[in-house]
Amino acid sequence: MNDPRIDRLAGVLLRHSLNLDKGDIFQVNASIAAKPLVAAIFREAATMGVFPVIRWQDDEIGRLSYDLLTVGDADTARFLERSNQWEITRWQDIKANLALRAPENDQENSGVPREKLQMTGKAGEPLQRLIIDERQWALFYWPTPAQAQKAGLSNSDYFDFVLDVSLIDYDRLYAAEQVLARRMEQADQLRIVAPGTDLTFSIRGLPVVCCYGRRNVPDGEVYTAPVRDSVNGRITYNVPSNMWGQTYKNVSLEFADGKIVQASCDGDNDALNRIFDADEGARYVGEFSFGVNPLIRRPIGSTLFDEKIAGSIHFTPGAAYARADNGNKSMIHWDLIQIQRSDYGGGEVWFDGELIRRDGLFVPEELQGLNG
Question: Within a 10 A sphere around the Cβ of 171, how many other Cβ atoms?
Answer without folding.
Answer: 10
